[in-house]
């Protein structure tokens, strides 16, 4: 796990260049994420809320995950298992 750079643009760059495998965001301000999600989707990534619904910039505030389309569910399942094991925190 890498510490966030506190700049979504750099984090999406790290995803696109293979420095990171996925991104998990706890809050979703559209000006931070709509451009990065658009590029990530073009590169074969899925951007979805943890319930599996697609990220939408008009629904700010909910956590969402960006991962390769074929790996998204496995990463989401791993996050859910970790969350359950740690008592939901």
Describe what you observe in this structure.
InterPro entries: Inositol_monophosphatase-like. It holds the Pfam family Inositol_P. By secondary structure, the protein is of the alpha+beta class. The protein has a single domain, classed as 3-Layer(aba) Sandwich (D-Maltodextrin-Binding Protein, domain 2). It has three helices and three strands. The protein has a three-stranded antiparallel sheet with strand order 1-3-2, with helices on both faces. α1 packs parallel to α2. The chain is globular. It starts with 7 loop residues before the first helix and ends with a helix. The mean pLDDT is 90.
Layout of helices and strands, plus pairs?
Elements: H1 8-16, E1 22-25, H2 30-42, E2 45-49, E3 64-68, H3 72-85
Antiparallel strand pairs: 1-3, 2-3
Helix pairs in contact: 1-2
Features:
89 residues, alpha+beta, D-Maltodextrin-Binding Protein, domain 2, three-stranded antiparallel β-sheet, 3 helices, globular
Write the H/E string, N to C. HEHEEH
Class of secondary structure makeup: alpha+beta
Low-confidence stretches: none
The number of helical segments is 3
The count of domains is 1
- Largest sheet properties: 3 strands, antiparallel
Compute the separation of the termini in Å.
17 Å
Under CATH, the topology is which? D-Maltodextrin-Binding Protein, domain 2
Strand content: 15-25%
Helix content: 40-55%
Average pLDDT score: 90
Quaternary organisation? single chain
Pfam families: Inositol_P
InterPro entries: Inositol_monophosphatase-like (IPR000760)
